[in-house]
Amino acid sequence: QVQLQESGPGLVEPSQTLSLTCTVSGGSITTGYHYWTWIRRAPGMRLEWMGAIGSSGNTYYRPSLKSRTSISRDTSKNQFTLQLRSVTPADTAVYYCVRARQVDTTEYDYRGQGTQVTVSS
After folding, report:
1. How far is the CA of 9 from the CAs of 18, 65, 108, 115, 120, in angstroms?
2. First-to-final CA distance of the chain
């Protein structure tokens, strides 16, 4: 059973960088044909696909977020990380890390419990 767990600050000031880490257990982020993905749900909005890193290490980003987003991984820790730069209150959301079979989709096989991030001064 694959398990994912998000970690990171719950409060970020505007213009700063949001950094979240997803720790994966029960499976390696470097094997199989999977996409280790970040999605989010802002208040009153649908789930939004943000980006992913494939098992091969290739990265994929939502075009509207690409200039502010970086996804990387630490294979020694079986973790992958989201960095979102220059955040605004519109980035307030519950952030989830998931394992998916495709990019640019909010469908997934496994999902973390989610972490609330609020952007506020």
Report:
1. 8, 20, 24, 9, 12
2. 39
